[in-house]
Structure formats: C-alpha cells, structure tokens
Amino acid sequence: MSQQITFNYTTVEGYFLQDDPATVAQDFDYVSRNFGLIDRDYDSGVPGKPDETQWQRFEREVQRLNDTAPEGVVYKVLYMGRHGQGVHNVAEKRYGREEWDRHWAAQEGDTLARWSDAPLTDIGIQQALAVHAFWARQIGEAKTPAPARYYTSPLHRCLETADLTFRGLTLPEGRPYKPVVKELLREVLGVHTCDRRSPLSLLQSTFSDNFTFEPSMTEADELWSPTHRETNAELDARIKRLLDDVFSTDDSAFISFTSHSGAICALLRVLGHREFRLCTGGVIPVLVRAEKQELVG
C-alpha cells in the first residue's frame, strides 16, 4: 500500500496583530504596522543584539522553533498576498453583488470590459507596485526575511501581481524570484468566467520568461465548470491538498503565495486562523505549525 503524506495545520498565535480578535481587518494597515509583527521578546534563551530589528529577532525565533520541534513538526511563515484590483472587481461594484452573482459573473464581459480570466486594472497595477515598494522597504530597512519560494495562482491577475510585486527587488543571495505556478492556488472554481483560466500556451507565451508552470497543468482549464460553483467544503479540501503538496516538498521557512480573496479565506480556515479578509493588493503573514500525518492509501 502507498502512503500519502498529509499535515495537521495550526496558526501559532501571539506573533502577528492579525491573529488578535481585537484587530479589525477592514481598518488594519499592514504597511504602517510593520506587516503586523508584534513588538515583543521571544523565549529563545539567546539575548538579542541592540541593533537587531524585530524581524531579525523573529527570524531567529522561527529558526529556534524548527530546531527544537519534535520529529514530524515544522514551522513556516506564509506571506499570503491578494492580487491587485481586477477588471471583474470593477464590474461587480458597477452591478452590485446580487446582480453580479445572478447574471453578470457568468458572462464574458459587457460593453465596457471583458473579464474572463480578468486582468488587472490600472489601479490594480498601481496597488501591486505599491506592494513592491513596501517589500523593498521591509527587506532593506526592517530586515524582513524575503520569501525563499514564490507560488502563484495561474489566473492572469495573480501572475501580473506577483511579477509587479517581486520582480526587481534586491533579494538575498540564494533567494531569487523564481515563481512556481500552482493550479490549486486559484480562486473559487466554476460559473464565474473571471475565475476561468486562460489556455496554458497563452499564459506561457505571456509570462514564461520567469515562471515555472506545473507539468501537470493542462492546455485547457479542466477544473472550471460553467454550471457548478465550488462550495466552501470543496474549496477547503482543494486548498488542503495544495498545502500538503507544498509542505511535503518545500523545506523553505518563508514562502509567498499570490492568490485571491476566496482562496486566501480558505487558506486561513485550513490553517486555523481567524477570518481576516484582505482588500485588493493586501498581504497577511501567518506563522504556521504543521504536524505530519502518514495515511495508508
């Protein structure tokens, strides 16, 4: 019998303000609050240096957690970023949520715009560039650990956002921006054409200079259905498979996900994090404890 590696996930609370129920998501500005990292001491047993930043102390704390973890337990920091404003976000606001869900979301577009596999708007591009500037300050001044691995949804708006956010940053040696496109990291599947993936060959011709597409990706989108919208239970199960894949194959301690509102909500649910909705262009870091389980298949 084959063994399938899976994990039990929990959010390690007490490190980020976003974990705290007193933090109101719609009012929280992660840019001005050092990504939400709480200014506190850690039980590392190693005195910090006077000139260390809070992020440098936190990086040592994550290393300590991994060094002292029981067998089968690993700690990772996931930076989860939502794409910038897409054409579909503007259309939904124009028609209202009820009318959007009732009719327009299933259309290819209207007389003003086409939103199947929706690209970024000009505002969305500026949002992604603002996050690029934020990351540059964080890495250069706050010494926030850059991601060691970058994963992104295959939908156009996420590929654009990831590239605008991370390309051109001054990154540490050994941590280049080499994004991997993960089919399972995409938005809620079905009915809404904005969430239908473009043909693989089109994406490769547009973004192939720096992106690695999973070998299992098919030319046509075989996951999207015009008649069935993925339920939360189905979405959570898909996101759980994504996390199991990443945690079983990637030993990086700091990882970036570029994804979508619904998918990030599912990630937070699977990780045991409280609900924390992101605006377009928003980012949330989460410290995750994962304990390996081996299931006999």
Describe the structure.
- This protein is an alpha/beta fold.
- 33% of the residues lie in helices and 16% in strands.
- It has helices at 54-67, 87-95, 97-102, 122-142, 156-166, 200-207, 232-249, 261-270; strands at residues 3-11, 73-82, 149-152, 180-181, 212-213, 254-259, 283-296.
- The protein has a seven-stranded mixed β-sheet.
- The protein is globular and about 60 Å long.
- The termini are close together.
Q: Major sheet: size, sense and barrel closure?
A: 7 strands, mixed
Q: Count of helical segments?
A: 8
**Lateral strand order in the biggest sheet:** 1-7-2-6-3-4-5
How would you spell out the order of helices and strands? EHEHHHEHEHEHEHE
Strand content: 15-25%
The helix content is 25-40%
- Give Rg in angstroms: 19 Å
The average pLDDT is 95
Ranges where pLDDT stays below 50 over 5 or more residues in a row are none
User: How many DSSP-defined strands?
Assistant: 7
Structural class: alpha/beta
First-to-last CA distance = 6 Å
The gross shape turns out to be globular
Which secondary structure elements does this structure contain, and how are they paired or packed?
Blueprint: E1 3-11, H1 54-67, E2 73-82, H2 87-95, H3 97-102, H4 122-142, E3 149-152, H5 156-166, E4 180-181, H6 200-207, E5 212-213, H7 232-249, E6 254-259, H8 261-270, E7 283-296
Parallel strand pairs: 2-6, 3-4, 3-6, 4-5
Antiparallel strand pairs: 1-7, 2-7
Helix pairs in contact: 4-5, 7-8
